[in-house]
Specification:
224 residues; alpha/beta; 6-stranded mixed beta sheet
Length: 224
């Protein structure tokens, strides 16, 4: 499984979000970095086929997106930056409903994800009574549901405490074989401890793509 991006550009009115982005993605875990407004969310949304670029092309497994959207979406898990689940639903109800929509026949996935992310004790509690971190963890669980080969996670650890972050990355490590996981973050420890590859965007351009350990050599003084 691979993703290719060539000359990808996207603007919102006069605001340029992405400028001629060229990237190649192979299976593994990749951190997407950059200041607010650098284009991270737009790039993830384009990769998830939720935002149509103005220019450029994307390929999934060697096939252009425009000819492969059904397959892409069936193999993609996406975590948006903002979550707004119905307050009367519970994490278990949401995951079981999404599992039905995804035609997931394997039993036990919902219970496994709830347990792995520390949500078992609140699985049947309405979202209106959950903390922001617990809601975020449920959003992460739905992205992993169905064992997608492509995971696109926007602000993965936003609002999570240290223990919750550890659970998330433990799940990602167990699930990483043969998968591509791209996540955006502002937390340097997450990048340094859990990924070997990083991409840095600035004003819609890629200013670094390579090994995490080389980031400070290529961009001296860079702050996550």
């Amino acid at each position: 499984m691979e993703l290719r991006i060539r000359e990808l550009s996207k603007s919102y009115g006069t605001q340029v979000a992405l400028r001629n982005v060229n990237l190649d993605f192979q299976p593994g875990t990749i951190a997407l970095l950059g200041p607010n407004g650098s284009g991270k969310t737009t790039l993830l949304r384009c990769l998830a086929s939720l935002t149509r670029p103005d220019h450029g092309q994307l390929w999934f497994d060697g096939i252009p997106y425009r000819r492969n959207l059904k397959l892409l979406r069936s193999q993609c898990g996406y975590l948006p930056q903002e979550l707004d689940f119905p307050h009367n639903l519970t994490p278990r109800q949401l995951l079981e409903y999404l599992g039905t929509l995804k035609n997931i026949s394997e039993s036990g996935q919902v219970d496994y994800l709830l347990s792995a992310l520390g949500l078992k004790s609140v699985a049947d509690r309405p979202f209106g009574r959950l903390s922001g971190g617990q809601i975020r963890l449920t959003g992460i669980a739905q992205a992993f549901l169905g064992k997608p080969s492509l995971l696109l996670l926007d602000e993965l650890t936003r609002g999570l405490d240290v223990e919750e972050r550890e659970r998330v990355f433990a799940l990602a490590r167990k699930s990483s074989s043969g998968r591509l996981i791209v996540f955006s973050t502002h937390d340097p420890p997450d990048v340094e401890r859990f990924t070997e590859q990083a991409i840095v965007l600035q004003q819609g351009r890629v200013i670094f793509s390579g090994k995490t350990e080389d980031l400070h050599h290529h961009i001296p003084g860079y702050h996550f």
